[in-house]
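Sequence and fold
=================
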Amino acid sequence: MSTVVLSSYIWACTDNGIGKFDQSTLSQQTLMELFIFGLDAAEYICGSRDIPTEVSAWKSVRCSVEGKVEAFRWRLYGAGGTGTVNLQYLPSTVKILRMDGNVLHGTVNLADMPVQMEYFCLSDNQLTGNVDLMCLAVSLETLDMYGNKFTGSISLTHLPNSLEVLDLHQNELSSSVCLRFLPVALRKINLSSNRFEGSVDFTRLPESLSDINVDNNALFGTLNLDHLPTKLCRIRVSRNNFSGTVSLIALPSSLHYINLSSNRFEGSLDVTRLPDALIYVLVNNNAFSGPVDLAHLPAKLFSIDMFNNDFSGTVRLPTGVSINITGCDDLVVKYL
C-alpha cells in the first residue's frame, strides 16, 4: 500500500482527527506497514514501499500458525538502522520486539506497547525523551533500553509482576530510585551509568534477584548489605558517593562478585567471613582504615582489590590469590 494511501488510513482511523489511533479497523498487514515505514530502510524489510510483500514473508517477522504477527527483529544495522519507533502501529499480538544496535531516534511511548509484549529491546540506539514505566504490558518479562539518551525521572514502584530483567544503563536518567517495591520475579536490574541520586534501600530486594548494578551514578548515604536476597550473585555499587561503614559478614552464600570501589566508605573492614562462592572483591578507592585480616579468605577467591585505602598495621598475604593492596602508606605487607 502506498504511503499516500496509508496516510489516509491513519486519518480515517483516528477519532475525529485528534490523535487517538484505533487499531481495530486495520489489518495486521497494514499495521506492520505503518510501523516499518517509520524506518528509513523499510524497503529492505518489505521489498517496496509502494507494493509491500506479505508480512508473513518478511525476514524480520515471525508469525503464529494462525498468521498473527508475534515477533519483529531488526537489529545490529548500525548507521543503516535509522528511523523512528511508533509502537501504536504494532499489532496487539506482538510478543517480541528487538531493534537494538541501530541509530533509531525520537521518543518512544511505552504506553502504546502491545498488550501481549514479553520481550522488549531497543538498546544501543539514540532514542530520547522520558521513560514511563507506569503503564507497561502486564505480560512483560524483559525491558532492555540501555545505551540511549533517555532523560528525566523513572518510577520502579508499579512494574509488571512478570518482569524478570530491567536494563536502563548508559542513559541520562535522574532523580531518586526506590527499590522497595520491585517485582517478585525480577532477576536482573541494571541502572548503572545514569544520573540517579539519593539513598537506596537494599534490605527489601526481591528474593529472586541475582544481579543488581547501580555503578556510576550520584547515589549517597550508607549501605546495608545484611539482608540481601539469598540468590544474589553479583552486586555493583562502584563510582557513587556512598559513605559510612559497611559490613560484609552476612553476604548471601551465592554471591561471587561484589564491587564497592570508588565510594567514601570508611572504618574497619572484616573480610574473614566472606561467602565460599565469592570469586571477585573490589573495595579499592575508599577510606577503609585500621588492620585487615586476609588469612581467612574463601578458597575460590581469585582476586581482591583493596588499593588506595587507609589500612594500617601488618597484613599477611596468602598465596594463590591476586591481592592488590598498594597505596596504603601505613601498611606493612608480609607473605604467608
In short: Helices lie at 3-12, 28-36, 43-46.
